[in-house]
Design goal:
Blueprint lengths: L18 E5 L4 H12 L3 E6 L3 H12 L3 H5 L1 E5 L5 H10 L5 E4 L14 H29 L4 E5 L12 H21 L5 E7 L5 H9 L1 H10 L8 H12 L9 E5 L10
Parallel strand pairs: 1-2, 1-4, 2-3, 4-5, 5-6, 6-7
Helix pairs in contact: 1-9, 4-5, 5-6, 7-8
Amino acid sequence: MTTHASSPATGDGLGTSRHVLLTGGLGDIGRAVALRLARDGHRVTLVDLASATDGRRAIERLAGDDPAAFDRLGYLEADVTRPAAIAAAIDALPSLDVAIANAGIVRSSPFLEIRAEDWQAHLDVNLSGAFHTAQAAARRFVRDGTAGLLIFTSSWVAEVPWPEIAAYTVTKSGLEMLARQAARELAPYGIRANLVAPGIVSAGMAKHQYDTEPQYRERVGRVVPLRTLQTVDSVAGAFSYLCSPDGDYLTGTTLLADGGASLHAFD
C-alpha cells in the first residue's frame, strides 16, 4: 500500500494539484523530480524495487525538514518489468493524473563487447518497463475518465549516438516513438504523452565517470556547449513544467533540456 500521510486529493488531470506516479523514484533523478513535484503541490507516489520500509526511509531523508513535502510523498514497491506488478501498484492508488515512466538502467560497453543479457536487460527495463507503466496508467485513466498525462524519461542520446552505450541509446530512441504512438492513439480519451530528454546529468554513472575518468571529462567538455554537467534540479524543472497547467497543450513532444549537447558533432 502507499505510505502517504494523508489521502491524496482526487484530481481530474487538469488542475494545479495532481496525483503523480513516478517509477525509478529512488534514483538520483527520480528523487529530485519527486521532491520538486511535491513542493509544487502535487501528490507523488514513488515506485521502485526497495522494500516499503526502505522506501519510506528514503522519503524521510529526501524531504528532510520539509514536512509539507513529506506529507505529499508516498512509496510503493513494484518491478516495472512485471506487467502485473506495475498494474497492481497503479490500481492501488486512490487516484491518478500523471504517470512518469522514469525507471531505467545503463551499462557501458563497447559495441563489440555488449553481452546478450545486458542488451536484454536494457530492453526489459528501459523500453518494456516504460510500456507496461504507460499502458497500465492509460487503462486507469480511461476507466476513471481522467484526462491523464504520460511522461517518459528519454535522453539527448536518443538522437545522437554516444560511444559505448548502444543498448541504452537504442532503448531511449524507442521511447520517443512509444510516446508519440501513445499520444496519437490516446488523444481521443484526452490523454497526453510527452518526454523529457535530459543531457549529461551530474548523477549516477555519468557523474562517476566525470569524476574518475579524465578522458570522459575531456569529452564532456568538448560536447556540452554550456561547459558543465546538468544538475538533477534542472531535470526536475523540466518535469515540473510538463506537470503544470502551462504544459497542458503539449502532446507527442520531447522537451529537450540538454545544455546544447545534441548540437555538437563529435568523434
